[in-house]
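pls design
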């Protein structure tokens, strides 16, 4: 039988008095909770009789009304205040609000200990607690059956949603995307809310964060233990209240499933990273690699190499999770801050990588690999495209598909220009321990002013003049001509792009 506030009032040994809100005495009481925190509604789950000594109870009428309204919205059964303790005077506005809401406010006679009320509620709700325990056992039984049947993670999430009677979404907190394959996505508004939610959010109650819903439904987000980058989003049926305690048990089951899946994924990532490392270092048996790629369904004729940089290395280290959940076969590894990934050249993989790596990512994609023998060239192509994306400030650049960058459409063009224009200067610098290339770059950067260049390099103006004459002699270019200046500037930019690959 359900215990109500009226039942507690009628227990003579408790001696509780009704101060206001008598119309709500039929509210069900599931538990008791003691709090003297300023915002106690954040730490309750609904159905509790909240007991307080009034230490942090607000004094103003407006604040007292706000407290009562928030407690009512949070599903609190009633408020019990210790007599002759620290509670300020209850205002008429507070009393009228209590009566209007039908929210019972009780007085705990002095010196009755709060624990006496807690024991009375516990004894009266044994049957309900037994039922709750039975429902909790069913949650873990779902996990046992899932393991025994080797069903998918999506099947487990669907079964847990049916048990809880609401929609469940396991999401990547950084992108809002579904974490497990074959699970439905969040609508765009909720996905953006998940991405934008910070740990400092104050819209929290009963251990869950509030998210925007649709109409009567209020979506909720709860963290998942040991998986800070994953969130559990709950969308209840209209007007239904989700039991936060059961929700925490479901989050625990999801945490166990995530740990198991991530263990397998990490094993696969390391094995595949080792293979890609050998490819990058050109120390592989071609036939053995082709055989392994065949097992992974990576056909070189339909595969591209990706090189990417971003400001958050943690995201690069977990990019394989996003590839897996989007059913994209991969090899990937991180080398000195540069992510390399070998993936099928199919629609959508660029968007997956871009979301996984974040807004700071600059991604370069090679031409199709065609064969293993072309892998070193694909590395140069992907690195060139990545450098080009960084120079242009764009998220993704495909080798050969972009408009030529000031006449440089590929690695070959850039290398040829550097060989023709800069190599003579570099050779001279090496042989004579001079600084012609550095002087040329400073000269062009300072609008071809001899004095400004000299000041920047801390040398005499005549020294700069002598060096620039040597540049003209070695390159055969007349620095008084615009075409020559443009060729020198473009060669320096091409060298910077090629150096960025290395």
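designed seq:
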């Amino acid at each position: 039988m359900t215990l109500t506030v009226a039942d507690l009032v009628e227990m003579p040994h408790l001696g509780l008095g009704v101060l206001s809100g008598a119309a709500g005495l039929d509210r069900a009481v599931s538990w008791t909770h003691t709090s003297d925190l300023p915002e106690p509604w954040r730490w309750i789950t609904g159905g509790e009789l909240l007991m307080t000594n009034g230490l942090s109870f607000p004094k103003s009428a407006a604040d007292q009304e706000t407290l009562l309204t928030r407690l009512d919205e949070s599903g609190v059964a009633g408020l019990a205040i210790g007599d002759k303790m620290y509670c300020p005077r209850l205002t008429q506005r507070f009393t009228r609000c209590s009566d209007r809401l039908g929210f019972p406010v009780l007085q705990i006679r002095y010196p009755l200990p709060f624990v006496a009320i807690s024991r009375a509620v516990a004894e009266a709700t044994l049957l309900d607690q037994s039922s709750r325990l039975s429902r909790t056992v069913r949650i873990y039984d779902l996990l046992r059956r899932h393991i025994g049947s080797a069903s998918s993670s999506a099947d487990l999430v669907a079964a847990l949603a049916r048990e809880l009677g609401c929609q469940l979404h396991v999401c990547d907190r950084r992108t809002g995307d579904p974490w497990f394959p074959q699970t439905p996505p969040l609508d765009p508004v909720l996905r953006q809310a998940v991405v934008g939610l910070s740990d400092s959010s104050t819209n929290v109650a009963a251990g869950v964060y509030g998210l925007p819903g649709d109409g009567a439904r209020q979506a909720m987000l709860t963290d998942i233990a040991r998986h800070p980058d994953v969130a559990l989003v709950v969308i209840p049926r209209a007007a239904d209240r989700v039991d936060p305690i059961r929700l925490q048990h479901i989050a625990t089951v999801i945490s166990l499933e995530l740990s198991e899946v991530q263990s397998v994924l990490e094993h696969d990532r390391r094995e595949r990273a080792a293979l890609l490392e050998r490819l990058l270092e050109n120390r592989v048996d071609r036939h053995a690699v082709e055989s392994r790629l065949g097992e992974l369904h990576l056909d070189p004729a339909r595969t591209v190499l990706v090189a990417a940089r971003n400001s958050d290395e943690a995201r690069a280290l977990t990019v394989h999770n996003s590839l897996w959940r989007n059913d994209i076969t991969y090899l990937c590894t991180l080398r000195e801050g540069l992510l390399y990934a070998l993936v099928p050249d199919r629609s959508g993989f660029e968007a997956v990588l871009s979301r996984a790596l974040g807004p700071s990512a600059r991604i370069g994609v090679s031409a199709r690999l065609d064969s293993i023998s072309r892998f070193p060239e694909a590395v140069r192509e992907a690195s060139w495209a990545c450098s080009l994306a960084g120079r242009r400030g764009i998220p993704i650049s495909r080798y050969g598909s972009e408009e030529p960058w000031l006449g440089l459409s590929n690695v070959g063009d850039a290398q040829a220009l550097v060989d023709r224009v800069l190599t003579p200067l570099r050779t001279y610098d090496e042989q004579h321990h001079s600084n012609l290339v550095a002087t040329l770059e400073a000269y062009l950067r300072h609008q071809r002013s001899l004095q400004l260049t000299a000041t920047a390099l801390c040398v005499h103006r005549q020294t700069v003049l002598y060096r620039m004459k040597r540049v003209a002699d070695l390159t055969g270019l007349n620095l008084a001509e615009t075409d020559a200046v443009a060729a020198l500037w473009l060669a320096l930019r091409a060298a910077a792009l090629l150096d960025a690959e290395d």
